[in-house]
Amino acid sequence: MRRTPFYEQHVELGAKLVPFAGWEMPVLYEGIKEEHTAVRTHAGMFDVSHMGEVEVEGHGALEFLQLVLSNDVARVAVGGAQYSCLCNESGGVVDDVFLYRLGTDRYLIVTNASNHETDLQWLGRWSREYEVAVRDVADRYAMLAVQGPHARAILAETLKIELPERFHVRAAQVGRRPALICGTGYTGEDGVELLVDPEVSIPIFTELRLAGIVPCGLGARDTLRLEVCYPLHGHELTPERNPIEADLAWACKEETGFLGSPAVATARAEGTAERLVAFTIEGAGIPRDGNPVLGERGAQVGTVTSGTFAPSLELGAGMAYVRADLAEPGTEVEIDVRGRHRPARIASKPLYP
Amino acid sequence: MAEANYPDDLRYHDQHDWVRVEGDTATFGITWYAQDTLGEVVFFEPPEVGTVLTKDSSYAEVESVKAVSDVIAPMSGEVTEVNDSLSDSPEKINEDPYGEGWLVKVSLSHPEESEALLSAAEYQKLLDR
């Protein structure tokens, strides 16, 4: 099991540690609801050092990234950021990533922990014909997501740094070492993600904690992202599902000719058999990953991909793939939660706010 | 409650349930260890009054934000009362697992089953292993 540079800190704070994608990660410190609320109302920080970083550099970088990423990379200026999918030839999602443009011919891709090795191989394989270097730089950074309505103010004051705007990236000195500050996150709240030198990561964590930023675990990260309907690879996104059915059409620009773009174009034009929807349970019950979604007369019309008790909504909620004709918000369905049929309603995204 | 606590006047089942036996009736609940492992309880699915429980079988579910857990009957009998206040305040199971967080009251069919249950000291020994 791998440990992040913040590991000792988690142990010291009494975090409950769980295995996640080969890493020993904090699922909670005090409690998921408490940490969730801290991010919605104040500021919280998450160790996300398990996520991977890949640097892509060279004269052919743009051309190469247009091949492997679904979004239009040409629209990203230096200092900009963009969400994208890595698609296979059938249009299935290999991973979903954030791209940051660090220089004219230099980009950073942040990958999901569980897909980092796959992504590296995938990028390596397709880079051969381009004038580009693909480097695994995951060990170079400790990553801390600082999120919440007060996150920026506390960070700027505590670290004495200038923060990038939303969907931008800035180089800065943090703990007297070079760092990257990214105006992105996975909670639906304002905030930044810090990529810092692992050697100075613990003093930074401590400084931010003493400034009132609440350490939060992966449990709250999951409930926060679910309420704002951000997909999670391995749940909503898989190599068997294309971005169109996952409601990520906005992150696909087929005119760039990316890998899988013909399949994505067909899915966009013809529609897909199923679509990813958000839903809430009406009344009691908490849906869980894998629960069947039932339509009229109890026939299965879909499957839950993520489900939880949503702390800000105070009810059971989740996301599911359902038959496309049932994807309209307001549609009534039932969720089979371990044999109990719970009335539910397809809802507009995001569920919160 | 923040600190581990196992009252001496209760009997314990190794699946982390407690019983308060009063003659032929008993109150059931989950132990401090069970609620601590589960985390903040957000939902309790009780059995209906009149349900017949069999020792060692699941009779209810408690859910935290992340996980679901079956609740195991430490003894056999018929449910005479369920703790309705938990539907609005399931967090009582965390805050007061042996008091306001009780789950059901049961009319015991085999009161002698309590003899096979663990004392507080025996249960704690089990947890320490």
Please state the average pLDDT score of chain A: 97
How does the helix and strand content of chain B classify structurally? alpha+beta
Number of helices of chain B: 3
Helix/strand-derived category of chain A reads: alpha+beta
The named CATH superfamily of the largest domain in chain A: Probable tRNA modification gtpase trme, domain 1
Determine the CATH topology of chain B. Answer: OB fold (Dihydrolipoamide Acetyltransferase, E2P)
Number of extended strands of chain A? 19
Characterise the protein shown here.
- The complex is a heterodimer of chains A (353) and B (129).
- By secondary structure, chain A is of the alpha+beta class.
- Chain A has helices at 7-12, 32-41, 61-68, 116-127, 151-159, 201-210, 218-227, 261-270, and strands at residues 16-20, 23-28, 44-47, 52-57, 81-87, 93-103, 106-111, 133-136, 142-147, 169-174, 177-182, 191-196, 214-216, 274-281, 292-294, 300-310, 315-323, 332-337, 340-347.
- In chain A, the strands form 4 sheets. A 6-stranded mixed sheet of chain A has the order 10-11-12-9-3-13, with helices on both faces. Chain A has a 6-stranded antiparallel β-barrel with strand order 14-17-16-15-18-19. A 5-stranded antiparallel sheet of chain A has the order 5-6-7-4-8, covered by helices on one side.
- In chain A, α2 crosses α7 (218-227).
- Chain B is globular, with a radius of gyration of 13 Å.
- Chain B is α+β, with helices and mostly antiparallel strands.
- Chain B has one domain (11-128): OB fold (Dihydrolipoamide Acetyltransferase, E2P), CATH 2.40.50.100.
- The A-B interface holds A 16, 27-28, 31-33, 219, 222-223, 284-286, 288, 308-309, 311, 316, 338, 340 and B 39-40, 42-43, 45, 61, 63-66, 68, 87.
